[in-house]
């Protein structure tokens, strides 16, 4: 069975992590130690930002950034086709989500959608942009400029975008801060974990305090100055992050090669997909294919399973404006029409850094049969 998830660790890397786990446990220094600092420094270097601060999840990272921006009682634009965490973080921080639609070509908003949202909501405080599937749209530099011109903060949800790069800039380095996820299914993982990227030293200092119960200027002690949380990454997770980060470009490259092997067939059969050719590098966390006809996602998943291909989750079949948990968030159906139409009409074939030529053959066979 071709599976949508793959833990990219060799036996040698597992042995190395096991050895380091023993070392960490013997020292008794389980949090905020040398491996956390090293992981943060190397992640900052990789993304090209000045500072990176680790947390226990991307959800925590998003909520911390939104708290930092003072969103309580204010409106924040966010795509409707995103994970629960993006919208939930706004609500947890006291903000009011304002849904943006997406384009059919990239499954993310564009500058025109943002301008439309701003015109309808001139009191908007900022934007929580989501790089769905690792896709940075072609006009994202213009998006960042527009936000600056209107005094809107721009935060990037980079949960899918490890290694994604547009015009020599990596995700998380276009606006006022980025939030990455290292959850088990992501392009790189620490099992659980997240990271904030920023070029602002005051923001980095706030995040370090906020993740550690509001203890400013130091990792330990009993003086609490900010109403923070216990959102730290462990030393063991940080070391695993170092192992994964060291081969991130290699893992992304393998995903890209798998995508490149599928594209000629899709073009031959006139199947629409989200093309990332405008980017210098795309994480390919999800490869989005659109389909026509009356079959549901569940029916397609069942059909593909008959061909030994397990389709993973989409991005996202149920957009946030239709999620029961967010029924109190207002929206205008006319402002989310594209997402409403195409979120239920796409699939993501199982592309990972472990995808083999044999796997590609099975995926192609399923596509030939059911498209």
Output mean pLDDT.
97
Radius of gyration: 21 Å
The shape is: globular
Number of domains: 2
Point out poorly predicted stretches.
none
Number-wise, the strands total: 11
Task: Give the name of the CATH architecture of the largest domain.
Answer: 3-Layer(aba) Sandwich
Q: What's the CATH topology label of the largest domain?
A: Aspartate Aminotransferase, domain 2
The CATH superfamily of the largest domain is Type I PLP-dependent aspartate aminotransferase-like (Major domain)
Cα separation of the termini = 20 Å
Order the strands across the largest sheet as they lie in space: 1-9-8-5-4-2-3
Structural class: alpha/beta
Q: What is the count of helical runs?
A: 12
CATH class category label of the largest domain: Alpha Beta
Q: What is the H-and-E element order?
A: HHEHEHEHEHEEEEEHHHEHHEH
Percent of residues in helices comes to: 25-40%
Share of residues in strands:
5-15%
Major sheet: 7 strands, mixed
Please summarize what this structure is:
The protein is 39% helix and 12% strand. The protein is of the alpha/beta class and 371 residues long.
Detailed description of the structure:
The chain is built from twelve helices and eleven strands. It has 371 residues and is of the alpha/beta class. The protein folds into two domains: 11-245, Aspartate Aminotransferase, domain 2 (3-Layer(aba) Sandwich), CATH 3.40.640.10; 248-370, Aspartate Aminotransferase, domain 1 (Alpha-Beta Complex), CATH 3.90.1150.10. Strand 4, helix 6 (140-149) and strand 5 form a beta-alpha-beta unit. The protein starts with 10 loop residues before the first helix and ends with a helix. The mean pLDDT is 97.
């Amino acid at each position: 069975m071709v599976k949508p998830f793959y833990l990219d660790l060799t036996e040698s890397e597992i042995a190395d992590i096991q050895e380091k786990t023993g070392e960490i446990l013997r020292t008794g220094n389980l949090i905020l130690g040398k491996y956390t600092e090293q992981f943060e420094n190397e992640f900052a270097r990789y993304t090209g930002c000045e500072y990176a601060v680790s947390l226990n999840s991307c959800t925590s990272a998003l909520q911390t950034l939104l708290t930092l921006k003072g969103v309580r009682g204010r409106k924040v634009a966010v795509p409707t086709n995103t994970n629960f965490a993006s919208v939930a973080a706004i609500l947890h921080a006291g903000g009011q989500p304002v849904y943006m639609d997406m384009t059919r070509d990239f499954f993310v908003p564009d500058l025109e959608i943002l301008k439309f949202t701003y015109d309808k909501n001139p009191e908007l405080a900022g934007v929580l942009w989501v790089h769905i599937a690792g896709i940075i749209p072609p006009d994202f530099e213009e998006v960042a400029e527009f936000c600056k011109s209107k005094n809107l903060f721009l935060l990037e949800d980079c949960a899918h975008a490890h290694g994604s790069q547009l015009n020599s800039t990596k995700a998380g380095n276009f606006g006022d801060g980025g939030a990455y996820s290292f959850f088990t299914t992501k392009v790189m993982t620490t099992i659980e974990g997240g990271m904030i990227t920023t070029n602002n030293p005051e923001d980095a200092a706030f995040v370090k305090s906020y993740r550690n119960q509001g203890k400013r200027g130091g990792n330990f002690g009993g003086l609490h100055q900010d109403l923070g949380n216990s959102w730290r990454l462990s030393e063991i997770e940080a070391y695993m992050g170092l192992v994964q980060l060291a081969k991130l470009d290699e893992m992304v490259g393998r995903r890209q090669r798998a995508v490149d092997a599928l594209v000629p067939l899709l073009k031959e059969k006139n199947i629409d997909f989200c093309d990332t050719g405008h980017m210098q590098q795309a994480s390919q966390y999800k490869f989005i294919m659109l389909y026509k006809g009356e079959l549901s996602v569940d029916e397609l998943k069942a059909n593909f399973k008959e061909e030994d291909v397990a389709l993973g989750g989409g991005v996202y079949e149920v957009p946030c404006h239709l999620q029961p948990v967010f029924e109190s968030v207002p929206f205008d159906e006319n402002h989310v029409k594209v997402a409403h139409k195409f979120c239920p009409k796409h699939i993501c074939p199982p592309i990972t850094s472990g995808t083999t030529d044999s796997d590609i053959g099975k995926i192609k066979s399923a596509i030939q049969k059911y498209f």
